[in-house]
Amino acid sequence: MIAIDLGSNSLRMLxxxxxxxxxxxxxxxxxxxxxxxKSTGVISAEAIERIIASINEAKLQGFDFHxxxxxxxxxxxxxxxxxxxxxxxxxxxSTGVKFEIIDGEKEAQITLNGVKRRxxxxxxxxxxxxxxxxxxxxxxxxxxxxDVVVTKSFPIGxxxxxxxxSSLDEIRANIAQEMQxxxxxxxxxxxxxGNAKLFLATAGTPTSVASMKLGLTFKTYDKxxxxxxxxxxxxxxxxxxxxxxxxxxxxxxxxxxxxxxxIGTGMLIxxxxxxLSGMSESIVVDDGLVEGLLLEW
Length: 297
Fold this sequence. Notes:
Elements: E1 2-6, E2 10-16, E3 23-30, H1 37-40, H2 45-60, E4 70-74, H3 76-80, H4 84-95, E5 100-101, H5 104-121, E6 128-134, E7 139-145, E8 148-154, H6 158-162, H7 168-178, H8 180-193, E9 198-202, H9 204-213, H10 223-226, E10 230-232, H11 233-245, H12 248-255, H13 263-277, E11 281-284, H14 289-294
Parallel strand pairs: 1-4, 4-5, 6-9, 9-11
Antiparallel strand pairs: 1-2, 2-3, 6-7, 7-8, 10-11
């Protein structure tokens, strides 16, 4: 069984043995699906080519899309792209992989399933928590209070926000305004259900911050070491300053090519969620949408 998540910045795949439920193969590539989307309203031909090339690269690494069960979903970039139908067809025609474009609510629910499974393995209390998922084109917030789940997707992502401003300093000057709807949502949730006890953070920005804190690089990244890492508000500030002082080559070594110019924006979003939620620390998990997809089998 193969699960595929085509995000606004990254393409992630996992292959699982149906009998043993063990992960047998994995693949990840930065494809920048949303590159230029903010200004043009469409997924570019170059982005489509990167996606197709990456899927074909995964084939060479043992992913058999024709003879295995495949669940492939895409999120914010294709949700808003004017040429979404053409993009899905072009990818299918070239690779045999047919993507389903899911809405923000479904994305949040599947991601939550992946995060909850990891929380069980970490023996974390699951009666009251918040999940932050920072993507390339959107940010999802999920609140869980026992059996009550409240989610909302915001069109604020590391690719689209980066390409809306000329510099990180300009983003930092405008981040509070960009996050106004997020603040309103958190306030409404807190007023109705009270504050969440735990803060879980998933996706590339939190995992990159945790990796940097642990002294890992993009090449030495270890999911098992990163998962469960405590990241505080201060940690985000420390790693942001480290990143800001790096050369482009050093940034690529730290977080990977294609992310080097985006993670700073992600850190500003992450930092804002700490402020808006009143949380002082978060638990990073490298489990999300693609892991949640596998749980649906």
